[in-house]
Amino acid sequence: MRKYDVILEIQGKPVAVGYIEGELFEDARFHYDEEYLTQNDPKAISVSLPVQKEPFSAERTKVFFEGLLPEGFMRKTIASNMHFDERDYLSILYYLGKECLGAIRIGEAGDEDKTGYDVISSEQVRQLAAEGRPNHRNLLSRLIFH
User: Fold this and answer.
1) 3-state secondary structure (DSSP) of residue 4
2) Residue 74 lies in a domain
């Protein structure tokens, strides 16, 4: 049985909200975590997956989570490179799950992967922005002298 944790970033902090569980991608179902449900005002990960105790059907699970993945050529390429069936959204989701759209991450149950953000100063932001800015003096001198 495969089981993947679903992590939602809430106010900058990763929160385990539930898990996807199933033998195959065809029967995998999303469940909200019981501990998450006992929190004050738990948030749904989607309008299509409102907060509830019962697991969602395999179809509703697939429709939502498959929507987080690339489509068409990109999906075929990823599946081919990883030797996955392109219909196996769970394997692709796990492979790409730390880089999903929005505030959701997917990881194998029990992974202790520490991800997050480092706070940087305004000066560091300016330095990073300057790295991508062309040097206009050098550009101007090349245009004039060449």
Assistant:
1) strand
2) yes
For the chain, the domain total comes to 1
44-74: pLDDT as tens digits: 999 999 999 999 999 999 999 888 888 889 8
Does residue 59 form part of some domain?
yes
* Nearest residue to 32 (alpha-carbon basis) of 12, 50, 11: 50
Cα 105 from Cα 5, distance rounded (Å): 8
Tell me, yes or no, whether 69 lies in a domain: yes
Give the helix/strand (H/E) hosting 124: helix 122-131
Four-residue CA torsion sign, 60, 66, 71, 72: negative
Q: Which two three-digit tokens encode residue 15?
A: 């929160």
Q: Kindly state whether residue 97 falls inside one of the protein's structural domains.
A: yes
Predicted model pTM: 0.69
Closest residue by Cα to residue 31 from 59, 9, 57, 10: 57
